[in-house]
Fold each of these.
Amino acid sequence: MEEHIFHEKDISNDSFLVTGGAGFIGSHIAEYLLKHGAKKVRVLDNMVNGFEKNLSILRNYPAFEFMEGDIRNAETCLMACTGIDYVSHQAALGSVPRSIKEPVYFNDVNVGGFVNMLKAAVDQKVKQFVYASSSSVYGDEPTLPKREERIGNCLSPYAATKKTNELYAQVFADVYGLKLIGFRYFNIFGPRQDPDGPYAAVIPLFVKGIINKTPVYINGDGEQTRDFTFIDNAVQINIKGMLTRNSDAFNKVYNVAVGEYFTVNHLYQACAARLKSDWKPVHREPRAGDIRNSLADVSLAEKQLGYKPVKKFDTGLYETIEFFSQLYSG
Ligand SMILES: NC(=O)c1ccc[n+]([C@@H]2O[C@H](COP(=O)([O-])OP(=O)(O)OC[C@H]3O[C@@H](n4cnc5c(N)ncnc54)[C@H](O)[C@@H]3O)[C@@H](O)[C@H]2O)c1
């Protein structure tokens, strides 16, 4: 696997907090920081969707610290931010259909927990704070490619929580002077993404179904498009956002994507071809709250943060399939 370096600054005197670091995206961010010699990398996670196997990778590094706790508890957030220079806030509940079933729970974690983290970061004088928003904020805005300033109505409670995060971020930047940067992730995929449970993401589900020859479902006609974004790109923007010295970059949200889109049918065919399988998918009803087409303009992140997608769809898919193939073959 080819490795990329996303920072220039020496981070050996810097302490980082990654919330949600036992999950998919957070564990990759924490691993990058540990691998590159950060002084301290603390993970805060309550393990609702996190995994010990992700933490066990991080436990190999002496600079790693795990704090089991819930972002809904303000005191926990305050403790987690103690002695921290930079925060990457990834902890949240992340499924559109689940948010339609459980909007109050989503609000408590994704909004209440977020505000607790912002307040704790202010109180503990955190230098820079980056956080996960989502492409779902674009809602029913049909223009492609998606540009940051043009958003529509939210199509789900999940999207509403992320849009609310962006509002609070702007307020905390303006009122308390916190240096904040938000990331609208577009379908992040890669190794460690949870393939199980009713709310699993599409790529691990496809790969798992094709390998195990169990039913693979495509919602609707499969001609909906997504800007599938390999995990390295999400890690890259988090590192660049936390460490940037460009004052024009603060108090903004950025698309995190590749700037290329593929249909879900194409994705399925690419997975099956890579796995040399003729297993066929089953089409079912479209999913409520889903966006039809998604494609990002990433030029703002390129300009302000020096972001450049390093691994695109094919390379990322190949690495992801390798990971899951090994997982399922033993
Ligand atoms: N994966 C994607 O494609 C995608 C797209 C858009 C936005 N996002 C956002 O990126 C972030 C990370 O997503 P992910 O895919 O890694 O999800 P994930 O579920 O793998 O990771 C989230 C982590 O947050 C933890 N968590 C949840 N509730 C918590 C709480 N109350 N207190 C402490 N920890 C809690 C979970 O245990 C989990 O480990 C989330 O904010 C998500 O909404 C992800």
Amino acid sequence: MKKVQTGQVIEFYSNSCRVKTNFGEFTCLAIKNVVVGDFVELEIIQDSKKFLGKILKINQRFSSLSKKNKDKKKLFAANITHVGILITPKPKTSSEFIDKWILKTKLSDIEAFIINNKNDLGSDKEYQNKIKIYKSLNIKIINTSAKYDENLEELSNYIKNKSVLFVGNSGAGKSTLTSKIVGKDLKTSTLSNDQGVHTTSISSLYELPNGIKIIDSPGMRDIQIMEYDKEQIIYGFEEILKSSKGCKYNDCNHINNKGCNVKKALLNGVISKSRYNNFIKFRDLE
Ligand SMILES: Nc1nc2c(ncn2[C@@H]2O[C@H](COP(=O)(O)OP(=O)(O)O)[C@@H](O)[C@H]2O)c(=O)[nH]1
Ligand SMILES: [Mg+2]
Ligand SMILES: [Zn+2]
């Protein structure tokens, strides 16, 4: 085994992390800016009792998710390919939550798809219409019941060889779904240090034999959209972006300017009311 190895951060604690390599897992001291999902170069240091690794370098990320906290950008996870947005009739998922994540993933080069969970509960017309909106935007939708094991195979097949983060309101079924797919009870992982003190992991990455990687990062649950510039918001609303190309004026506000093609598409039902409202709301947020 070479002294320097490449591995992926699979557990992140407050000041340490576990890195998985082809030669096993190593506990390392976390270095600045390293997050779960990161590929790192580490030096294996042989200790009297166990192997320890020292992170030398973080490899370039193909994607990352961050959250802005009082003007400071905080990174949460790296190298995610897909975000599965859990939506449920109970608790009712708002279209704002869905659109926020569609925007966020779009601007982070990550693909969003929808997991319509708690299918066993049934749903009303309004809920079904909401799903139709996203279907018409060509967003992949998978109907599941995590509790009663419905369609979990379709979901597993879809996320094969992908690195996925599940997002959803509290109570939407993220933990249930994750443990069903991972195939075990997900007790919060703990790590004991030399003094036998246990620390609970902040975020984890579960890698399954069939190539599925599921990232669990509680810090990502409550994202804000304030971190984006006004001009960026439209990229999370593909259908509005498309319509806006037909507006008479380049600087059209898409609210009350003359010759606005977005308003026209809204009236014609090409753009849905909820998508339009969220677009304006996110864009004009102070
Ligand atoms: N009826 C129904 N209940 C579910 C389903 N998935 C999860 N639940 C329940 O919803 C509650 C919240 O689930 P949990 O996985 O903890 O949600 P989380 O907060 O998103 O992690 C639990 O009581 C689950 O048993 C489902 O598909 N159908
Ligand atoms: Mg949970
Ligand atoms: Zn316009």
Amino acid sequence: MISSARLLQLAHDAGFDRAGLSRAEPIPRETLLDWLAAGHHADLDWMNERVEERLDVTRLLPNAKTVVSLVCNYWHTDDASPIARYARGRDYHATMRDRLRTLRRSVRTAFAGVSDYGAVDANPVMEKVWAVRAGLGTVTKNGCFTTHDFGSWVVLATMILDVECDAYASPLDEDPCGRCRICIDACPTSAIVKDRVVDAGACLSYQTIENAEDSVPESLRPALNGFIFGCDICQDVCPLNVTPIKGGSRFEPRSVSRESIRALAAMSKAEFDAWIPGTALARAGFDGLRRNAAYALGAVKDTGARGVLEKLRSDANPHVVEAATWALGKLGAS
Ligand code: B12
Ligand code: SF4
Ligand code: SF4
């Protein structure tokens, strides 16, 4: 048995804003299986893989006893940007992985013989569920994990240990949403299909990031009128997010977050190489970002963007061409 106070101190020293502990008990199966059965994972085939690991962390780390949930606050400014807040600075995956590496090293030094497993985002770990169990916040109706201090402007990482701690947290006994449903009504694509359940296929976050190598369904394109990477609408409207706290310097927005949609549509490969590597935007790639920007210009009927869109219409990438053609159609005849 190890000291929970010491473990939480090590997490704090590694740079995490909050940390909490829960017992490594299986997750109720319907939490994930109902979502998958409804097809809410869209083309995220990897969500359908390693399901048993997601539901039971002892399959990831034999004899797992403790799950450490780790939270970083990333909010910085209210400046308008077509990029979702979590992606405006250095890639959060790199920041969380660096901090996790530091924590794993210090845990091994402090508690000899302990084995661990670390996860950030892509691993088969249900990070929000663990953060709830660790008493760090709740999953609110917008499907986001929301804390008292930072609202939902947080990203998560998770560490699993094969040793028991001397104290564990309990989930908070509260529903901060109450009768509110502002986020559900504000979602432009009705992607929040019921309280706390998001249909990824309808979510602009999925369409602009995960579906970057295909076309966005035509019915969803008019909603792409402000974001070209991710979507913050259901968080921006949330009353639990009205007093955000500035995050650390690693989350400081980079210059690309101040570029206009037109500039991002017209981005050259050289500009892409200067602006994008090292940020989470790299996931959508050069073509995915320009495709998204073309949709956004069409969605807002930006007549001043006709020249940029004409150029994109003869691009080498078929999805960029298709998006530019659609957008020009929205602008109408010149
Ligand atoms: C798949 C995925 C997506 C999908 C689906 C979104 C979703 N809500 O599931 C898409 C691509 C749409 C997406 C979008 C976003 N994502 Co995402 N995503 C994930 C990922 C990889 C898996 C989530 C998952 O397992 N979903 C399956 C469903 C069934 O599980 P669930 O979301 O936890 O929901 C259930 C449980 O929470 C349960 N529940 C609620 N309370 C409780 C309590 C207990 C005790 C239990 C047992 C269960 C339970 O009810 C829910 C419905 O069944 C995680 C990383 C990870 N490994 O966890 C990041 C993650 C959730 N995403 C994250 C972020 C930042 C985002 C975006 C904000 C990005 C953006 N700005 O565009 C948006 C938010 C959209 C939204 N409104 O949810 C962050 C979380 C941020 C936060 N504060 O919540 C994560 C954790 C990544 C990270 N490591 O930081 N994402
Ligand atoms: S991120 Fe945007 S599209 Fe997705 S559920 Fe929230 S408001 Fe809807
Ligand atoms: S907008 Fe209202 S319902 Fe939605 S998450 Fe915030 S408090 Fe909950």
